[in-house]
User: What shape does this take?
Amino acid sequence: MENILEVKDLCKTYIADKRQNNVLRNVSFNVPKGDMVAIMGPSGSGKSTLLYSVSGIDKATSGSVKLAGKDITKMDQGELASVRLNDMGFVFQQMYMLRNLTILDNIILPAIESKKTDETRSQITDRGQEVMRKLGIIDIADNDINEVSGGQLQRACICRSLINNPGIIFADEPTGALNRSSSDEVMEQFIKINNEGTSVMMVTHDSKVAAKCKRVIYIVDGNIKGEIELGAMKSGSEIRDRERKVNNWLMELGW
Amino acid sequence: MFWNILRRDLKRKKTMNIILLLFIVLASVFVASSVNNITSVVGGLDKYLEMGGIGDISIIGLGDGVDKSIRDAFEGESCVTELRMDDKLLRPTSNVEVNGVELEDLQNVIVMPLSESEFTYFDEQNERVTDVPKGKCLLTVGVMDKFGLKAGDRVKFCFGDNKYEFEIAGGLKDAMLGSVFMGNPRFALNAEDFNEIWDETGDSRQAFAIASLDTNDTDKVNEILSTVTGVQVFPFSIIKLTYVLDMLTALIMLVASIALIIVSFVVLRFAVNLSVNEEIREIGIMKAIGLKDRRIRGMFLVKYLALSIVGTTIGFIASIPFSSYLLKSSSRNMVLTSTGGIVIPLVSSFVVLLAIVGYAYLCTRRVRKYAPIDAIREGQSGERFKKKSGIRIGKSPLNATGFLALNDILSSPRKYITVVIAFSICTTIVLTLINSVETLRSDNLAYSFGKVTDVYLTETGDDHTIMVKADLIDVLDNLEKRLGDEGLDVETSMDALYSASVSFNGKDYNERLLQGINITADEYVYYEGSAPASIDEIAITEQIREKTGASIGDYMDITINGETRAYQVTAYFETMNNTGSCIRVHEDVNIDNEPVFGFVGYQLDFKDNPDQKTIDTRICKIKDILGTQHVYNAAEFVDHCTNSSDTMEQVAHLFLGITLIVVVMMSILMERSFIADEKSEIAIMKAVGFKDSRIIAHHVKRFMMVAVTAIILAVIFSIPITEISITPIFRSMGMKNMTFEYNLLKIGLIYPAIVLGVTLLTVSLTALYSKTITSRNTALSE
Assistant: This one.
């Protein structure tokens, strides 16, 4: 299957107080189109750094990252901005949105900035409303960002990441700041998006969240220590078995 | 512990604290120097004139024995407590040459022996000068500036056939004749040099005297002077009025200073507010761990006090040279010195310190409102959060950055009002000055110098021996003939000025009479009443009306040719001749034997009524025919007479410079603080794919919208403000009803474009700093 993301010998080194800290050490992996990958690992293992490096938000020290066939490590800031705008979406743990815009305006802002389509403003607005409707938050379209719950806001962030129809969505602990029911709602949306063909790569601490993904990569001290193939989740009843499987696997790896 | 928190705070929030510190320094510099400037300007002119020896009444006398007539008139009179007189004065008999070039415009020159003068003079450094080295001379500062002369230039005068050459040693501040309006440049020589010329000129020299006296009975002095022929009398107020332009410059600096103080406090308010807003999370956390409001406020106040002490100290030090610069730029012809030494800047800086701490105290009142939840929600808990702007991106015709810019402004208008107020105030002052310059350069004021004609001349080439009306008529006839011979058919006319004794209600005055030559009284403009229709009727100005109490219908006694008769006031008119203090008499009044005291210019009207373009072409021809450059159209003539548009334009450009400095500093500081405040928003915009250039465009557009709003307000306000602020000045110069000239290209486009261009350039460069924020900062802020 064609890969949406190809990571090869990725290294990331920080230098603090003249000391070299190798956060990622020759990490290599691929994400096929339509895959849904969870990155897990203990605190400080480098999983968020990996996510930011492969998504072009942070610059890798060495190695290559091919996103839809284009090596983003060789791109300048302007090209990277275009990739972030048009080819991928990003969902943060904190639900960052622009303070002075309504939820709907926050969602459609990247579409208006993008030159990807020739849509009119009203077509973009309709599309934004359609995405919100799909994620069940259409009733908060005209609300300010402080007037909605964390779960609604995170779903709004997912809507924003989807608005330009990206090939892949990166998510950094998207359920980390949410309660269990909100977390389930958000994961449901990710699965739905993935089922529609968009690849998803997320960092999580939560084995229940990871169990809903098709594949889990475990990372320790900047190296991939192992990965497990779970396959697509066919029904909600599978979740307990998948979670148990993930937990057992993690215990084997020393979680 | 508090000191530790403060130390760490100053370190950690370096950017915001530096911005706040810079604002404090800026405010302190502006306030300290402006207050110092204000105290020096207010009362400064009176002090200067007194130092210069200008008494209650000053006199300029022309003619043989005039000095003796003045002395004799006051002999034994107890009403005069002190009389100072310079009676050893000379007028060169031809134009002055500087470095071998004849200066046609340098007219009415007076040469005097400096050490023998009974008046007091100052040099350019405001130090008293009592003598000048042999072979050198000092020249009135205003004249030096006007002609671009400098120390070391060589100047040559002619007295009859004898030529004398001197080196200019520097500028001279002359209280009596040093103003722009007096128009009598003085060359102060060494007494030995002067006496040599005096002896050589012998009887051929033109006699005249300048005197000033102190009195305890002004009416009595006026009564005595009304009997002395050949004298012009200037009360202290008139001498003061001749400095109206210099004072105008000083007053403009004063207004500018007040504007800068307002701007400073507005900006300071913004900075303190922004800084306190930054602290919301800390306040919440401190409350959450149980600190009381009083303790939290105390901690903030210690921080602002520390910043204020440092900022106002730097501001105080910087204000001393800045204040001196402001003062110097407003007092080239006067001696205006800082009256309070360092006390005023010191007190002003202390007031700024108190204002900041006081304002910070008021701002920190909000500490009481903040709850621990604000630490989590960063002050944006839904209960108190205000609704954002009503505009929606889906319906907006603006692109993404344009929309974001407009939306930001509409969502937090108070944040941007600071910029609007500051930019508006500064730009309004610049535009007001430009409106004044345009008015002075227009022909709107031409009627204030008499009948409006096609061409005006101040020199024809044969006007050196004018004594009485017949001489003027000869000059006009010759002029008409010379131009007629060259194919220019013109009608000539002019307004002549005479001195006469006037009585009303038992009081005597020495006043100026205006009479038209080849013009009838009904050809002039009167704003009330009807033109004098017979020799028994006169029109008076507002100044005469105020001085004497006479009004339409009253009879005034005027002595002309030794005959006193009653003249009825039939109208009021306005003029800028003799700073507005004039009486117009009918053209048939026999004034023929009275000496002509002065005239404004020779006036020409072409018989074929040509358009302005043809007039301007013919003016060039007249210059060639007469061999003089002193030929003007109406607008140029007004500019020549008021002699103030250039000064005003210089002040306008000086204030434009100050405005641009304010604009640059405010733009840098505010944009920098916006970037600091919106760091996470910039990061998130980059994370969703906005390029650096688009972020910069967002910030620049925001300032552009604010600056355009400020400029539009400034353009609108500049019109009434021009009329309100400038009218009283012209009224004091004799103009009652002003018609202003507005150059829409300048006030609507050129100057706004300069302010806007500088703003946008500054913001664009400052906004480059946003490039240091990357999408990764989103992750880091988590």
Chain A has eight helices and ten strands. Chain A has a mean pLDDT of 89. The longest strand of chain A covers residues 3-16.
